[in-house]
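Title: Prediction job returns without error message
Component: structure pipeline
Severity: low
Priority: P3
Assignee: unassigned

Description:
Job completed but the reporter wants confirmation the result is attached to the right record. Sequence as submitted:
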Amino acid sequence: KEIGDKAGEGDGNHNLGHSFFMFLEYPNSEDAFIQAIAIYSDIQASLGHDAWKISIFEEQSKTYHALERNYFITGKEGKALEICEKGRARALFDLYSERLGLSKEGCEQRANINLEKMQEIAKREKASFIYFSRSFDNDLHAWVVKEDGIQSKKIVLSKGFQSKAPTPLEEKESRRSLMGDYLPVRTITLEGLSDQTLEKEESLDRSAHLSGGLEELYKALISPIEGMLDGEKLIIITDATMRDVPFAALYRNGPNGNGREYLIDKYTISMTPSLRIFDLLHEKKPLKNGSALIVADPAVEEKRLPGAKREGRILAREMASSKFLSEDGATAEAIKQTASDASILHFACHGSADARFDKDSVFEGGLCLTNGNGEMEMLHADEIQKFNLKADLVVLSACQTGKGAQRHEGVIGISRACLGAGVPSVVATHWSIQDEVTVDLMRDFYHNLLNREMTKAEALREAMLTQRKKHPEQPSLWGAFFLVGK
C-alpha cells in the first residue's frame, strides 16, 4: 500500500500508480510492480529528450525509493540493490546507449543488471563497488559489491547529519547535502567569481572547519562498512544528497596519535553514476591520439587567474600535440570549433555552480570564458552536453565543477554534461580550489598519467597524495578533486 501511495502521488504519477494497482491482481505483486515500472519506463524512453526524461523521472523516483526501502526492511537486501541500481541515472543511461547505437533489445539487456552481473563487473575491475542510498527516514542503505559476494548495511545517521538533509528542490537551499555546513567555502554565484579562489590566509581556518565534517563522515559512512572492503580500489555510487562528500579526504585519527589516516591513503577512489553506466563506458572507443585542447585564464577583467595560465602552459609543454587557448582566444566559439578533435580537454578557469542557460534549464553550472573583448562569456552545461566529444578525458580544473542541480537522476551539472557528450572520464571539483596548489597537483596528475602509465584514478590519487603529504592538516587544498566515470 505504501508503494502504491508513493506511485500515485501527483498527476505525473497517475499512470504508474494505476498500473501498480492493476498488477496487484496478479499473484506475485513484486514482479508485477517491476513490470509496471518497465511499462512506464518505455513511455519515458520514447520521449527522446534528455531534459524531459530527467524531469519525468523526478516524479517517479519516490516509487523506486519506496520499493527499495520495503525490500530492505523485509530482509531482501539483494532485491533492494537491484531496484536501487534501476533508479540511478536513467536518462544518462539512455543517452549513452543511443551514442553507442544499441538496439532496443540490447539496451534492455544492459539496463536490467542483476546481482550476478554486478559481481562479474567487480571481478573484472578487481574493485569493491559501494552503493549509498538515502532512505525516506534519513537513514542510509549501503551495499558493498565484490566478486565473492554482496553485503549490506543500514546506517543510522546522527541527528546532526539528518538536519542537513536537502530542502525542496524549488528552494535555493536545495544545494545542501550530507556535508551541509561543513563545506569549506560558500556556493559561488556569478557575481562572486572574483572571490572564489581560496586565499592563503583563509585556508587554515577553512580546513579546520572542513575537517570536523570529514572525520564525522568517516565515522558515519566508512566505519560501518570498513570490514566489508577488499583490495585497493573503491568505486562509489551515491545519490544526489551525497554529491558534496569528498570521499578521498574522509579520515580517522590513527592509533596512538599517529596523525590522520585519510581514505585516499589506502584506496584508489572513483565515482560512477550507476554500475550499468560504468559497464557501458567500456564499450566507448574514445579518441586516444595524444592531442589536447587546453583552455587557461580567459581574459575577463578583474577575474584573472595567473596560476591557471601557468598551469596551462606547463601542460601544453607536457603534451606536444596540443592547442592552447588563453586570454582573448579562450572563447566559447573557439572551443566549439576545436573540442571534437582532442583526446584530452583541460579547462583551467573560473567555474560557476549556479549558472543556467535559461530559467527552464534542468542543468546548473558553467565555465567562465571570454567574448574576446575582456567580458565574460559562459559556456553552460546545457551547451556542453550537446557537443559530440571523442575525448578520453575532460579535466575541469575550476571551482565547484562537480556541483549542479540536485535531482533524483543525479547531479545535473558540468561533469554530467561532459559524460552526456560522450566522454568516459571526467575530473571535477567539490569546492573552490587554491590557485597555486592546483598548478602542482595538475602537473603531477598528467606526469603520472602520461609518463608513468597509471590509470586516470591512480594518477589523480598519486597527485593528491603528494599534496596531502605537503598539507596533511589542510584537506581543503587538495581534497576537492575527484574522478567520475571510467
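Comment from assignee: result matches the submitted record. Confidence is low (pLDDT under 50) at residues 10-27, 163-176, 184-204.
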